[in-house]
Q: What sequence folds into this?
């Protein structure tokens, strides 16, 4: 929908998300597949949150951050997938300008928060392995809360700066976004005024919240690797590597897909590839995180078996 402005321009009040395909049979298959993945993502992350909350042995700094990550993934996926499912199956491809900006705000904030949380978790692993005697003193409950709250608050405030600049843009046609959600680049490309200042601020803030945690992760794991290689016994080294393997896998998957997505050129020929990479970090990564980081963990498995045994005993 568009409305005429006093300057004889056409001001856009809603966008059209093109999604994936106009072929009905393909859309039905995509809808079923994405719905199943969404249900698995939400169920897996909710399960992790519940298991950690009801089991006292899991009330440690590492699992406190795992709960934060799982809660983030629930919110992150729910911000994008329900609207995407409507686009695919119900042909409701329109989204208001305000709704589009709101979706981008939560997408940008939660993506940045995940970067910071992964950085914080690498610092937690560094203290646990390289400073084991000081770990209980340094990583206290109040300090963990400050780290998590700081990660959330910082990212939402930084994204608010970009949102203020986006809200000042004028959109006057065309109104089609060749994507399945409202990302930054497609939005600014639809503006009919100069966006160079907005793009510069967005580049600086996004670089800060992605590269700073990334460098922290690299430094932390360099120290961790050095400390593990100094362990004389093979069993000790294996235990040290297993402690960090899950988190390192999550970092590689998340940053790998994120970097690949934004390294792809933005021309029309690579748009399908861009959508494919976007699916990886908006749907598949949140689904695999509980599996990689938690469900393969011995303590999580023991907590799950304990809960299942209690439930079977109750049913008897």
A:
């Amino acid at each position: 929908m568009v409305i005429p402005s006093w300057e004889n321009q056409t001001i856009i009040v809603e966008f059209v998300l093109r999604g994936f395909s106009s072929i009905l049979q393909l859309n039905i298959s995509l809808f079923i597949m994405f719905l199943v993945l969404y249900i698995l993502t939400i169920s897996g992350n909710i399960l992790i949150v519940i298991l950690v909350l009801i089991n006292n042995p899991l009330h440690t700094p590492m699992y406190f951050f795992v709960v934060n990550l799982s809660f983030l993934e629930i919110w992150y996926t729910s911000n994008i997938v329900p609207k995407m499912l409507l686009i695919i199956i119900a042909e409701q491809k329109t989204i208001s300008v305000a709704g589009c900006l709101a979706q981008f705000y939560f997408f940008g904030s939660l993506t940045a928060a995940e970067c910071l949380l992964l950085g914080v978790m690498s610092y937690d692993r560094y203290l646990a392995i390289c400073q084991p005697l000081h770990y209980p003193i340094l990583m206290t409950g109040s300090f963990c809360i400050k780290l998590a709250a700081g990660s959330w608050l910082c990212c939402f405030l930084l994204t608010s700066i970009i949102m203020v600049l986006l809200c000042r843009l004028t959109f006057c046609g065309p109104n089609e976004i060749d994507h399945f959600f409202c990302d930054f680049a497609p939005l600014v490309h639809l503006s009919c005024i100069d966006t160079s200042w907005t793009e510069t601020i967005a580049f600086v803030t996004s670089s800060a919240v992605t590269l700073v945690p990334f460098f922290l992760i690299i430094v932390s794991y360099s120290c961790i690797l050095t400390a593990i290689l100094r362990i004389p016994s093979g069993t000790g080294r294996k235990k040290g590597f297993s402690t960090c393997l899950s988190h390192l896998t999550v970092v590689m998957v998340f940053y790998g897909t994120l970097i690949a997505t934004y390294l792809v050129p933005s021309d029309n020929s690579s748009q399908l590839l861009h959508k494919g990479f976007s699916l990886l970090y908006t749907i598949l990564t949140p689904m695999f995180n509980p599996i990689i980081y938690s469900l393969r963990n011995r303590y999580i498995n023991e907590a799950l078996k304990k809960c299942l045994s209690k439930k079977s005993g109750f049913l008897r």
